[in-house]
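Hi, here's the filled form for the chain we discussed.

Project: internal
Contact: R.S.
Residues: 467
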Amino acid sequence: MCGILAIASARPLDPGLPGSHAWRCSMGRLAPRGPDAQGAWRSPDALALLGHTRLAILDLSEAGAQPMRSDDGLVALTYNGEIYNAPDLRRTLEGEGFRFRGACDTEVLLVAYEAWGIEITLDRIEGMFAFVVWDGRTRTLHAAVDPVGQKPLCFAQRGDRITLASDAAALRRVLPEPSPLSYTGLCHVLRLGACPAPCSVWRGIEHLGPGQRLTWTPDTGARRFTYWQAPSEIDGDRSSEPFAELLTRVVGEHLHSDVPLGLLLSAGTDSSAIALAMKDAGASPICLTLGMPGGDDESPEARDTALALGLAHERVPLTTGSVDDLLRDAAIAFDEPRIFGALLTQTAVSRAARARAKVVLTGDGGDEAFSGYAWHTPPPAGGDPFAFVSEHTERVMPWFSAGDAATLLEPLRAPGESVYSEQIAVETLLPHDRPLLPGPRRAQRLDLLGFCASTILPKVDRASMAV
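And the returned structure, exactly as it came back:
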């Protein structure tokens, strides 16, 4: 849902930058994420330049065009995602005297920032998002990603300049100098299946992690903050809302759209529950299922689920002859390497969905949230945190050992750079571990902020946004 690009500098940017080859290449990389329109905005003092490629979902008119500016032209926003409680926030802001030109959630986000500032805005919005705000009144850039990292944002600092983009491929195209490959980042890929935030496989390029925001000024540079964390303890107060009602309500919030809706339906409980909730919420999506050769084909069960709910269903066949094409398409879609076979199937079903619906819901993340994996029954709580996290990652991501990764990639290690080890492999996950949580919850928390954030959600985002 859209592509974003932003540059801010302590000194005025080159006025020819928006028309430069580098800028055009970067926007071209983002174009598949937003095929409906492109826009660029340069601040009056030339300290900031924002770019946007639009996938029009809400308010298809020019009132939803981005980058979006405040009435006085001093604050601008480039944004990717959807704010699900935007209608409620809009009513609140109107009650405080603010008026709106259009009907999109982008304007709600911009006006919320003007009214409340970055911290309160992040506390009140609910959705999946990555955005950059330039506030010319204070010469400050703010950026943020949603609590679980559904929408991506990476950045690089070079001297007194910061550059941000939806993916590393777009970012690299507009940086003033090349970014070499990172030995540690690529070792992470071999050991963990992906390179977790904050690092990337490119030296000098970082990712904002789940629930993080960034503030940059010419004087302070970039400062990173965590505004949301997953629960660290079991809450004994149960919600009074029955789960079925909660699920239907939340899914209903995801149905705000001015374009056709679909559902990627498997035989699993996660997407089947979403299909039922969509039906209960009054939606009639087309259900798409990837048909696999052999005994792994879930399409018959998915078809039966769709028929029982009175929903249209289509099987998308995957043949062995199409694997080469899928490998090529996936290599283009993914800005960083990942070890996960589902990258290919997600690419295939996303490509098929493109011709049938502009918005699709999926069940990805359901197993992390509802303890659906075998590794969610680990050893009891407590024990050595390092050993627990290391064992957990080996169960979830049984790829190369840290020692094998270090040996294979030794030629890329920079002078003075530490030899990759198991300690380095798990150090990005250790802050997410809560040893006092019961075993399943402890593993789920690591999954949500580790495997889900670095592998599952990027799989869905990159594959779907490539088409």
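Let me know if anything looks off before we file it.
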